Amino acid sequence: MVGGEADTGLKAGFAEIEITPPVGTHKIGWLRDIVSTEILSPLYARVAILRTASVEVALVQLDTLFIAWPEVASIRAAVERSWGFPGRNVMVAATHNHAGPAVTHAGDVPKDEDYARFLVSQVIEAFGQALNALVDAEVGYGRSFEWKVAHNRRVVMRDGTVHTHGTFDDPEALCLEGPIDPEVAVIAVRDRDHNPLGLIVNYACHPTHHGGDTSIDAGYPGVLAGRLRQSGWPVTLFVNGASGNVHTADPAAGGKSLSAESVGTILAHDVQVALEGTTYSDALDLGAASTTIELPYRRPTHAETTGELEGAQRFIDPAIYERRIPALLQKMTVRGAHRAEVQVLAIGDLVIVSVPGELFVEYGLQIKKAAHPACALVATCANGRVGYVPTLAAFPRGGYETTFGPSSMLAPEAGERLVETAAALVRRLR
């Protein structure tokens, strides 16, 4: 691992700070412009820092839909300037919460620049609190499996196309296109007296509750953190896995979904199961590595830009696509490719691998296999935003995630490039 021989004297610090926007804030999660009228639950930024004598790494988790690259760069620069912490070793991941503020442009919703500045300032304050909270610590790892919460939301029809959020009530429905990732992975950190400091929980599932109404809410990741706080864990960072095609809506139950309260409660129980019998160590190597690659844009046909391609599925309001696609095409022409950072943080035999988009679950499973014998946690919607990253096989079938537009603009080979890059970084650290 980076850092040479095994380090001793592991230290850890956790902190959380509220980032709830005021009522009246424009929401991001449904492409159309929605103005919030109530706060159902607070939003938080959470920070976990691990340090040895030679290496220090940090994970920042945000109860937001995305985190845009300018804010990631601002956070990293500020922690270096304010706290002397190596910004390159900081991973910033959003839970993909649909019921939060407009941290970036999405559909008809413009980015809330004032909120973005507020968010960065709060993260920097919480980072300082986590540094001040550093104590001698030990780390444990556990996992369990959850089958009741997440479902692959892409239903293959008899004609070979896919309906995202299709159901088996439809006589033309044939089968699900792909799997889920049932693993609930848990990194637990406690002090040397065995007092809990914090958790990092990884699971792959879209948190879209309250995305389409006027409420601000943290969704099931917020419920999860609250339940675990009640059980003695003061800070829980939720890291969303490869959930681009995975959702709480069950196609076999007519699209019904468990509530955010139910999902958070179930996952909290799964975390407790994962922690049973966990062994802890205070002598771990830490490491960090990242690289930035250029992902090719799609070369859309006329049928793609007009939404007439077989299998195309424009959600919410097709007019949003019509309004946004001309500017998107111009941006793609000017940029030529989309820059994307892939980052890996290593904690002993664990690695946290980040990808800046909505990665399909098949790719997340590939990363986990490629990381063996290390255990990998896959963090998506991290260190920027590139939109959906479907598999090569998904594109000919269509469905929402492959339909050309602001949320799906990358070439089909982009996912393979991200997975290959992630695997190479893991090998480099090991």
Query: What's the helical proportion of residues?
Result: 25-40%
Mean pLDDT: 96
Tell me the radius of gyration.
20 Å
Shape: globular
Low-confidence stretches: 1-7
Strand % is 25-35%
**Helix run count:** 8
Biggest sheet details: 9 strands, mixed
Quickly give the structural class: alpha+beta
The termini sit apart by 5 Å
Question: What is the domain tally?
Answer: 1
Number of strands: 26
Describe the protein in words.
Helix content is 26%, strand content 29%. It is globular and about 60 Å long. The termini are close together. It has eight helices and 26 strands. The strands form eight sheets. Strands 1, 5, 6, 7, 8, 13, 14, 16 and 20 form a nine-stranded mixed beta sheet that branches. Strands 21-22-23-25 form a four-stranded mixed beta sheet. It has a three-stranded antiparallel beta sheet with strand order 11-10-12, with no helix packed on it. It has one domain.
What is the structure about, briefly put?
The protein is an alpha+beta fold and 430 residues long.
Key structural traits:
single chain; 430 residues; alpha+beta; nine-stranded mixed beta sheet; four-stranded mixed beta sheet; globular
Q: What's the SSE blueprint?
A:
Elements: E1 11-18, E2 26-27, E3 34-35, E4 38-39, E5 44-51, E6 56-62, H1 69-83, E7 90-94, H2 113-132, E8 135-145, E9 151-152, E10 154-157, E11 162-164, E12 173-176, E13 183-191, E14 196-203, E15 215-216, H3 219-230, E16 236-240, E17 246-247, E18 249-250, E19 256-257, H4 260-275, E20 280-281, E21 286-296, H5 302-305, H6 318-335, E22 337-347, E23 350-354, E24 358-359, H7 361-371, E25 375-379, E26 388-389, H8 414-429
Parallel strand pairs: 4-15, 6-7, 14-16, 23-25, 24-26
Antiparallel strand pairs: 1-5, 1-8, 2-3, 5-6, 8-13, 8-20, 9-17, 10-11, 10-12, 13-14, 18-19, 21-22, 22-23
Helix pairs in contact: 1-2, 3-4, 7-8
